[in-house]
């Protein structure tokens, strides 16, 4: 009996690790020379006696990143390709610190999207993805960005319902141009089913956007991009989305989609608790320059910037969230605690999974990122296992 207990104790210690010496960013603030105890797949409040330690002095430990809006990476698209392609994209972003990821689909035929949602739902159920986001086809042709205009349609609530039903409980967000016919009814439908209604790729006025928020819209899809800009007599959707406490605003912090002053404006007006950093990444993220497909449209990536081959519109990004974090800290000079809120805590809360991820607290998944003093990524842990070992 004693031998069996000793064996169990050794097994427990082998499955436990105490990370020491780093600056640890907690919900209550940054702890110098902090400790994070990993016990199996979870963060623990206390460590077993004689648990092994890992000295990470000179580093930061922050929660794993949570990406609400991501179309692919590693040469793989979430809208097309095989299951292995999707998993390759997930692995690519995981190696850049994104331990929780929602797969975003671009505009396509409704029947295609329903089939794709059914396939991705299996990966959500397996824990590889955190859900599905439909960015289109219910968006404005005036603000279509890198979406195929001939496949766009008004947001008919029956078709919206068809998509969320196909996802079998894994639909997390639908982006809509809520000013279009059926837009407000679709927002109400999504709210009733616990799916985030996001205002985006929209030509809405200020007043129309206020109506959408009152109907239940709670997210701004990549704020500033693919929507009318602020005017002093026609403030448009940006002002409405920034001013309302019920709305979280997505920001693509890659230096291409937003001027630093626009980022500062969003943080100043909305506050860190209402910002969510996203990638809006496409296949080329973590893969390199070249010719790619985004849905049916050809995209050329040159010097890391993705643009439609025809017309030159920005076509998603090649961003990974570790780059967004480093840029926010070193270029935008945002406090690290605010970056962590925007890149981990806020998106986790939006997705309704903040009881498991989004912060370094006992009982939550052991998802964390190790950064050096210059905020370069050095390690990634997901559910207690090193994806990238900081050694």
TrEMBL record:
Outline the extent of the Amidohydrolase-related domain. 60-387
Q: Has UniProt tagged this entry with the keyword Hydrolase?
A: yes
Q: Which CDD domains match?
A: NagA
Q: Which EC numbers does the record give?
A: 3.5.1.25
A GO term, aspect molecular function: N-acetylglucosamine-6-phosphate deacetylase activity
Enzyme class, spelled out:
hydrolase
Highest taxon of the source? Bacteria
Keywords from the UniProt entry: Carbohydrate metabolism, Hydrolase, Metal-binding
Q: Does the keyword 4Fe-4S apply?
A: no
Taken from the record, one Pfam family name reads Amidohydro_1
Entry's family note: Belongs to the metallo-dependent hydrolases superfamily. NagA family.
Q: What NCBIfam families would the database entry show? A: nagA (TIGR00221)
According to UniProt, the name of this protein is N-acetylglucosamine-6-phosphate deacetylase
**Native species:** Streptomyces amakusaensis
Q: What's the name of its gene? A: nagA
């Amino acid at each position: 009996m004693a031998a069996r207990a000793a064996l169990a104790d050794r097994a427990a210690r082998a499955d436990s690790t105490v990370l020491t010496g780093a600056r640890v960013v907690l919900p209550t603030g940054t702890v110098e020379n902090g400790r994070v105890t990993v016990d199996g797949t979870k963060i623990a409040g206390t460590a077993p006696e004689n648990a092994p330690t890992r000295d990470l002095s000179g580093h930061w430990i922050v929660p794993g990143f949570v990406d609400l809006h991501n179309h692919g990476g590693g040469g793989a698209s979430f809208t097309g390709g095989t299951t292995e392609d999707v998993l390759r994209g997930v692995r690519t972003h995981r190696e850049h610190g994104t331990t929780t990821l929602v797969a975003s689909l671009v505009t396509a035929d409704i029947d295609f999207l329903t089939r794709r949602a059914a396939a991705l739902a299996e990966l959500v159920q397996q824990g590889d993805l955190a859900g599905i986001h439909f960015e289109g086809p219910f968006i404005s042709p005036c603000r279509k960005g890198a979406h195929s205009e001939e496949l766009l349609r008004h947001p008919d609530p029956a078709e919206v319902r068809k998509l969320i039903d196909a996802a079998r409980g894994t639909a997390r967000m639908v982006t809509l141009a809520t000013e279009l016919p059926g837009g407000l009814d679709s927002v109400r439908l999504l709210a009733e089913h616990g799916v985030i209604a996001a205002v985006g790729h929209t030509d809405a006025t200020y007043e129309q956007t206020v109506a959408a928020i009152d109907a239940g819209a709670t997210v701004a899809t990549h704020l500033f991009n693919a929507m009318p800009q602020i005017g002093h007599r026609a403030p448009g959707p940006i002002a409405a989305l920034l001013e309302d406490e019920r709305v979280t605003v997505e920001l693509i912090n890659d230096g291409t989609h937003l001027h630093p002053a626009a980022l500062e404006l969003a943080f100043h007006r909305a506050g860190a608790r209402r910002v969510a950093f996203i990638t809006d990444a496409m296949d080329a993220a973590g893969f390199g320059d070249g010719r790619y497909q985004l849905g049916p449209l050809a995209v050329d990536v040159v010097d890391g910037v993705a643009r439609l081959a025809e017309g030159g519109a920005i076509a998603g990004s090649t961003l990974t969230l570790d780059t967004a974090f480093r840029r926010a800290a070193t270029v935008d000079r945002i406090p690290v605690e605010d970056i962590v809120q925007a890149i981990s805590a806020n998106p986790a809360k939006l997705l309704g999974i903040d009881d498991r991820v989004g912060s370094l607290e006992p009982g939550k998944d052991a998802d964390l990122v190790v950064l050096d003093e210059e905020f370069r990524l050095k390690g990634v842990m997901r559910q207690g296992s090193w994806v990238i070992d900081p050694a």
